[in-house]
Amino acid sequence: MPQRDVAAWNAMIYGYFENGRVDEAVKLFEVMPYRNVISWTSVISGLDQHGRSDETLLTFKKMLGFFVEPNSSTFASVITACANARDLGLGSEIHAYVVKLGYLYDTYVTASLITLYANCMHVNDSYKVFSERSHTNVVVWTSLLTGYGLNYNHNEALKVFGDMIRIGLLPNQSSFTSALNSSCEMESIDLGREIHGVAVKLGLNTDAFVGNSLVVLYSKCGNINDGLVVFKEIPEKNIVSWNSIIVGCAQHGYGNWALTLYAQMVRSRVDMDDITFTGGPLLLKKSDIGIHCFKYLADDLEAMSKMFRILSCD
């Protein structure tokens, strides 16, 4: 391969990661004649985005060994990797390094630190990071909102969501999903309806992730009719959408509705997952109608085999 300037090499590494060719990206990085902070950051970010957080942290340590100074993007990526790996020790060390280099007030570094402490079940430290200054970025607020929910502090999570609305900060899809999940855990359909109303005003109620959370909320609270209305409004349904409404119907005694939806899902050629093959059929079996799903799976022997094993078990 002829020698290229570093920007071209970096672009190739980025392209490999974007297309899921992780090993090729790493190999290319290793043979680069010269690496700058963008090169290192691309690999650190790419590895973590593909679930290889341990390698991400090793790469960051190598970067420091080569005396390359991280930038804000590097710190945001490596702190996210610490959060995913639940490595509080290294994360705390990097936090101190961030303060030393003056990157603490970068929006994405702040959000990553909040997530790190929340993932490691130190949500009070998440709040301390958040409280260092006032924030107007939805990413930072959503990190705290999600962190409280992850730590089962759902009242605080919903308070954060309410504060966002109060100061005029528009929530995004992740904000709504986290707030709805907290409402669901509290089984508070009234709070859920209020959040639903805000989502409708912002046009996010038909987003697949928001819609799925609404379906789960209404189903868990026993309001299947509203769950079905939300489900029908989702223009691009994914497997989570289908699983949520089918299991919700079956759990609350609407076996025929569940079977009808299951048949629609199969006819739509939706790629099923383990929840589809376990939760749905087992619940349908209890309604003595699950076995009828077979006629919709005649063209998919693997799917039919999985479902048969489930439905034939006592």
From TrEMBL:
> PROSITE patterns in the record, alphabetically?
PPR
For whether the record's keyword set contains Hydrolase, the answer is: no
Give the residue range of the signal peptide. none
Q: Which GO terms of the molecular function aspect are on file?
A: RNA binding
Q: What does the record list as GO biological process? A: RNA modification
PPR repeat boundaries on the chain: 5-39, 137-171, 238-272
> Record's Pfam families?
PPR, PPR_2
Task: Please provide the record's keywords in A-Z order.
Answer: Repeat
Q: What is this protein called?
A: Pentatricopeptide repeat-containing protein
Which species?
Anisodus acutangulus
